[in-house]
Design goal:
The chain contains five helices and three strands. With 134 residues, the chain is mainly α. α3 packs across α4.
């Protein structure tokens, strides 16, 4: 004796609807290797999230859109983390783009300004005495 065959309650499932047509708001994302460019040079720079980047020149005509946007943003010092957020690129991609720009001399990188935890006592006393004389 064979077991009875189960019958489906629903007939065959309908195929999923086609994806919606692209609208003007959706962007076609670029592949990251397109943004990075050819892998021709060595990339041995020490960039971290808090390294400050400052533009040294205007964008040249041969600059990629990412490089042009980066140079326009870096008129004042910005950290790599901020640039990554503004350009919507991952940190690893930002290091590739910035390294290429550092070797071309378009930007400079500098360590962030570290503030001392405690102010110098002699400076505080001089300020206090100066205020008392007023």
């Amino acid at each position: 004796m064979t077991p009875p065959q189960r019958q489906r309650r629903h007939p065959k499932e309908q195929p999923p609807p086609p994806p919606p047509a692209p609208t003007g708001k959706q962007k076609n994302p670029e592949r990251l290797f397109v943004v990075a460019g050819p892998d021709g040079g060595e990339r041995d720079t020490d960039l971290d999230l808090v390294t400050l980047i400052v533009a040294r020149a205007d964008p040249p005509p041969s600059a990629t859109p990412e490089q042009s946007a980066l140079l326009r943003l870096c008129t004042a010092p910005l950290s790599v983390a901020e640039l990554s957020a503004y350009l919507n690129l991952p940190f690893s991609m930002m290091t590739v783009v910035l390294t290429d720009m550092l070797t071309a001399g378009l930007v400079t990188a500098r360590a962030p300004i570290v503030r001392q935890a405690v102010a110098d006592r002699s400076i505080l006393e001089a300020v206090m005495h100066g205020l008392q004389r007023l």
